[in-house]
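Technical note accompanying the year-one report. For the benefit of new consortium partners, we illustrate the data format agreed upon in the data management plan: each record pairs a sequence with a structure-token string. No post-processing was applied to the example shown here.
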Amino acid sequence: MALTLRVAACPGQEQAKTNRVFLHPQDLAQLRQATFVTLGTEWVYPTAADAAVERGTVGLNAVQRRELQLALGDAVPVRTYTLTKDTHHAVSATFEIDTVVKRRSLAAPELSTDELEALARKRLVPFVISVGQSVVLDYYGTLLLLVAARLDGMAAAPDGGRPTPVSPLLAMLGAETSFLF
């Protein structure tokens, strides 16, 4: 199922930090309440309904618009994405870290990898992500940009034998995923 929608901003600052794409409830209903969608690329985004989003538009945060090379008002195909038995589940996900806003006067926050992993687990599970895809995390008031650098998973053997390690380009982040920074 697919719709062509116009790009709009997220309905609010708090929604922008969720890494979801926002659709008017009637548009989301047309997409059969899809949990995940693609937006003209293979990158997958979780969805949320929000009546503040004008019908016929999709609300994206600035990072998503930059990453997808879309401007406000651009038309974009929005397609449902369905998890299949072939979707890899990430055993580990490695992210590069940067800040969303570069300010010369402020020092970068001291990062605790344990706290960052707990926050990533809270905000990004469940999430389908691709290598190279960016997500935003609010770390004590500093917006961090996390870019997926590597995904590692296990592929089931076709004969039911021992699973083999794989490095997929797209994987589902779950409760069992180790987050590395």
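Partners are asked to follow this layout when depositing records. The first strand starts at residue 2 and ends at 9.
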